[in-house]
Amino acid sequence: MRPAQSFAPRLIVLAFFVLTLAFSGDANSEPAPAKARPSGVKLDSFPKVLKPLPQRFADAETAEVPDFQRHVMPLLGRLGCNGRSCHGSFQGRGGFQLSLFGYDFKADHEALLDENSGRVDVDDVAESLILAKPIDADMHEGGKRLDEGSWQYNTLHRWIASGAATERAIQTLERLEIQPAEIQFNTDDQQQQLTAIAHWADGSKEDVTALCRFASNDDAVAAIDESGLVASGLSGDTHVVVSYDRAVVPIAVTRRVQVDADIDAPPGSSHPVDRLIAAKHAKLGIIPSPICTDTEFIRRASLDITGTLPAAEEVRIFLANENPNKRKELIDDLLDAPGYAAWWATRFADWTGNNEQELNNVLPMRGAASRLWYEWLRVRLDDNVPYDEIVEGIVTAQSRQEGEDYREYCESMTEACKPGNENLFAARDGMPLFWARRNFQKPEERAIGFAYAFLGIRIECAQCHKHPFDQWSKDDFDQFSKIFASINARGNTVSKEANPIRKELLDNITGGKKLNNGELRKLIYRRANEGAIVPFPELIYVNRSAAARQKAAKQNKKRKGSAVAIEVPKGYVLGQAEPIELDDDPRAELMQWMRDPANSFFAPAIVNRVWSNYFGVGIINPTDDMNLANPASNQPLLKYLSDGFREHGFDLHWLHREIVTSDAYQRSTITNASNSHDRLNFSRHVPRRLPAEVIRDAVLLATQSTVQTQKMRSTMSDMAIAADVPQNRNQRDFALQVFGQSARESNCDCDRSDSPSLLQSIYLRNDMEMYQQLASKNGWVAQACASLGEAGPGQASNPQKDQIARKAEQNRVQMIARVKRYLALNPNRRAGQREKFEESYKAMRKRFKQFGYETPSLSAILADPDAWQLVSTGNANAKEASDSLESIVEDAYLRALSRTPDREELEIAMQYINDSDSVADGLSSVMWALVNTKEFIITH
Amino acid sequence: MRLHKTCDGVRRRDILRMGTLGTGAVGIGGLTLPNWLQMAAAGEVRPNHARRAIFIELVGGPSHMDTFDLKPDAPDAVRGAFRPIETNVPGVRISEHLPRLANVADKFAILRGVSHTLAAHQLGREYVNSGSRPIPALSFPSFGSVVSAERSSDINIPPHVAIPRAGHGPGFLGLQNAALETKAAPQFGKPFSVRGISLPGDLTVDEVSRRQDLLKRLDRRFAELEEDDQLLQGLSRFGDQAYAMITSPRARKAFDISKEPESFRSQFGEDAFGQSCLLSLRLVESGVNFVSLQLGGWDTHQDNFTKLKTDLLPKLDYGLSGLLTGLEQRGLLDSTAVMVTGEFGRTPKINTRSQEGGRDHYPRCMFMLMAGGDVRGGQVIGESDDTAAAPRHDAITPDDVAASFYHNLGIDPTKEFNSDTGRPITLVRNGKVVDALFS
């Protein structure tokens, strides 16, 4: 509920202030100074801080009158009256209902004074049920909450006796000052009492400690009781959170780790990311793990950046490379590889909610929508389009290109929906499918989904109530929702002027026959496949104020004279004081707000998600839940990366590179006494289970023949990370489902799961798909047997040469596609992209040289991209592969675990193979065992 | 973040989660996978209650008026073609096309006038599969996932099986509590095996054990780290469990319905649903905690009566009566809670879109069945009005029935869980146990 309109800006000022507190600078530093005060009011002219309520109301005879908003409601909250299981329940309790957690002062005041409820009786004060019930455990289902004569009792009593009034206007809390602003514990028995001072907009100050709610984010490190007393716990760091009225203030608590033994510290790093992490480590007494080995690095970086298991030969080449810069070079190669765009398009599709079921019937061709959505994202990631531009293409999406008429639009879309033509859709500026999802139609669904996708916040609680430890009120939510009401992207919508053409196209298909929806859909589908142009829906902006004006004009005519006033509908962007007037498509303004350097959500949301991809844990956790009570574990780090990302024009490659080149990312799994329990401060590599798509692909890449896997790697065909696994409409791929692929249905990063489960273990050990892959005539076992001259379908090959040729081929295909996209740009945009494009060419030329291939000149490629053929320079530095059983086992290790076996492992494997009925059986078992190791399924 | 564990190696939040999620979940501070076997051994299972459960979903929304809530005196436009028959419980009447169930009516309770407001299949199914009205921000767990999280089970038998697939997922309880789906329904008289559980034809248990031994010897890279890492512990434990299940004959035998004597098998009917009922009985007998199964086709917008009479009712009649009889014969009925429901009822008024007429979605009035455990069979609870258009008195809600189902299983329906986003969730938020079921 929104109180009177005039309160809104004031509430928002507070929200803004609290935001500043949470996101500007170190959360540990002193709270930011209060915003400018109302003119003419000087703090000094007011009396000192008001004494705490327990002192002022110790005596029942006090003359002071408590204030409803400042005292009575917070007190009821402290007593637990408006909790979820008591009167805050949506059904109320015992015929009495309060707003959950007590932020709806008007409704709560009404509920208290409702004569039927008998809660407040100004004529017979002591008989008021809010006094009579909570002092008597027998009468009150919620038990005894109050002592007669206590300050709490006296406060409520005085308020009722004085007439149980409430201020008409909501008073604004400017800030809640907590002393101390940070806590550092050193021993077990330390305690620290917090004091909370409320600073009100009228300049008054009051000690409200006794009225605050307190909570600890980890009470093993710092426990806090209901009076605000913090007790020292285990070593580590966390926050205790204080809330009062609308303020939510986190206070950092740290306790250094105690280590007796000396630990060798790895060399320091001047990388900005490492410096910021080291500062936090110093506070906690953590010494980080050393840097990981090259084998660990290539596996980790390949899986995390490209979602792809490195090929055996790639590992060999990387290990043999003696260039001290080789890790940086590998990172550059990986960011430029097709796997990067494929895998990150999958992640972006998670966050933006690309769900085929919710897109059912959004386009006239079945299954097309999610393919188009994915490809639109993939192409942009492959071209490294700035993040804000990608989001803009989604947020401000129009269905038609500029200057395109409806018929041209339908022609173009009919063509684009044919399998294999997804690039035609990717070449379009907008991605309106985001708006067309079935579960994204109601304004409130859009508010929740939008905030989740692009702001990394959860506002669903605020749909019903303000959460005590979050800043968004129900009013904020409602005002934000309004912004989305005017966008119509439903299945059969087209703009007015397009209607005749739509009808004509439909008539062409049906021959004018009347058909029911299902029949029509089938017919359209069939006719489109036969090459007919079919009508497509388009996203339109509905101008409600124009419609209202027309309606009013009509009414005015009828009524003659008594004009009906038109009010332009408004909505508010979260936390903003100025409304957006909804007499024009509001999405451009929304985008502008997100892109603004002052926006504290847009950049941190994606930075935090990308970070968590690399560390398994975000700087804020959960990654989609940025809120005041859930501060960053390292705010300076989040700020550095967010600012840098923005300053570099939202360059995603910059962000990835900045993270992955740090020592923090490259740390070993080996722990020491100071960091063995650290999971949140990036002091070691914490193993995590690979994502569903990555596992499914990794199993194939390990178990299938080199020819087979090289094809997968170069064309991304049959790769789950590239969304190229056939999925039935109602049933997802079995393995992907078992391993927790995101269902993309509930606006939560938790839609994707990385937990282990029994079914996963059963799948890898005993599923028919696993046996088929091991036994396939296109499998690695068959290939290995052939090379040993053992029984099995033969195929002579030189894996390393093939590998390089395939890689070169993959690069050639990718580059040609890029050139074509570049050439398709209009001249202006082409000029703007020129520099980036040339860089990409140079990087590729360098790689081709290493592969031993010639590269045509840039102008030649531009003149005729398709004319480019691979020409070997004859310098490829490949060695002949050996065909011994030992080398085959080594190959199995490199394929599955990206490392060579140690002596003992080799012996165990050889012994096993020799004891087996056949070499094929033995090899099959060895590969089976390798993909079933923990080492295979986790990062390290 | 904490740099040291407590003496028992568990954080307070983890303890909360153990009590609730059981097999653990991804938490704010990282992965937590407490030892669920230990946890469940000390779990909150009240004695003398049903140990296991079978949940039967009649997908599509069965007509209540033509099955368990007939209105012979209603006007023609409503009444339908079927007549009621007496059952073995005086005064309780059901459809004439359910004669076998009429003979075992003393073994189950009929709930009439169950009511809700979700008339779409998907939403209705989510509701009746979880006992909580669906909301967009959160996915509630299915009954089976809750039981799976709350109950211990032996290492070589799956705790939660769905035949052929689960009607609803584990929601915020996470993948660890998802059902093992058989993917196919068993066929009469044929051996039955399940993906992943049965060994392929050419592989012997000895060979699998030899492979497992190889795996054990090769899988040691992270042994040192494992002590402090719940992910690695979880992977090891699930790996051992998978191996136990694959190699032990217990699970395979439980799935193989051809092991039952012909006389016993045939009382379930020879169709896929009847044989699924037989399988569910074998599974609970073998120690599976929760089995869900489905009979689809109830979305009878057209030709309602022909479909019911010739196909759906005979299947349900054979399968369910066979199951209840079989459970009793094997002494399992007292320890097995059974619940039967569709996602809604169907319109009392017969539509005229087809020659014969059909009935459309109707959540305002429907039926559910409960049996086993502490449920007193042979009674009708609740009542609909003269045309079965609404509850006559207070409505029973899906939440109430869910609360009763959990109660029957000895699980407190008001128990609080933490969602995967840390939000506190009461297991059944709005339901009251229907006491009459148990009296």
Tell me what the CATH architecture of the largest domain in chain B is.
3-Layer(aba) Sandwich
Tell me how many strands of chain B there are. Answer: 16
Q: For this entry, what is the oligomeric state of its chains?
A: heterodimer
Q: How are the strands of the biggest sheet of chain B laid out side by side?
A: 8-7-9-3-10-13-6-14
Q: Nearest-angstrom radius of gyration of chain A?
A: 32 Å
Class by SSE composition of chain A: alpha+beta
The biggest sheet of chain B amounts to:
8 strands, mixed
Round the Cα radius of gyration of chain B to an integer and report it.
23 Å
**Helical residue percent band of chain A:** 40-55%
What about the largest sheet of chain A? 4 strands, mixed
InterPro entries (chain A): DUF1549, DUF1553
Pfam family, one (chain A): PSCyt2
Domain DUF1553 (chain A): 587-776
Protein name (chain A): Secreted protein containing DUF1549
How would you characterize this protein structure?
Chain B: It holds the Pfam family DUF1501. Chain B: This is DUF1501 domain-containing protein. Chain A: InterPro entries: DUF1549, DUF1553. Chain A: This is Secreted protein containing DUF1549. Chain A: Residues 1-29 form the signal peptide. The complex is a heterodimer of chains A (940) and B (439). Chain A has 940 residues and is an alpha+beta fold. Among the domains of chain A are: 68-161, no CATH class; 173-255, Immunoglobulin-like; 341-455 and 458-592, no CATH class; 692-787, no CATH class; 799-867; 885-933, no CATH class. Chain A is built from 38 helices and 14 strands. In chain A, the strands form 5 sheets. In chain A, strands 2-10-9-6 form a 4-stranded mixed beta sheet. In chain A, helix 8 (294-306) runs parallel beside helix 10 (326-336). By secondary structure, chain B is an alpha/beta fold. Chain B folds into 3 domains: 12-43, no CATH class; 50-192 and 256-438, 3-Layer(aba) Sandwich (Alkaline Phosphatase, subunit A), CATH 3.40.720.10; 195-248, no CATH class. Chain B is built from 14 helices and 16 strands. Chain B has an 8-stranded mixed beta sheet, with helices on both faces. Chain B has a two-stranded antiparallel ribbon with strand order 1-2. The radius of gyration of chain B is 23 Å and the shape is globular. The termini of chain B are far apart.
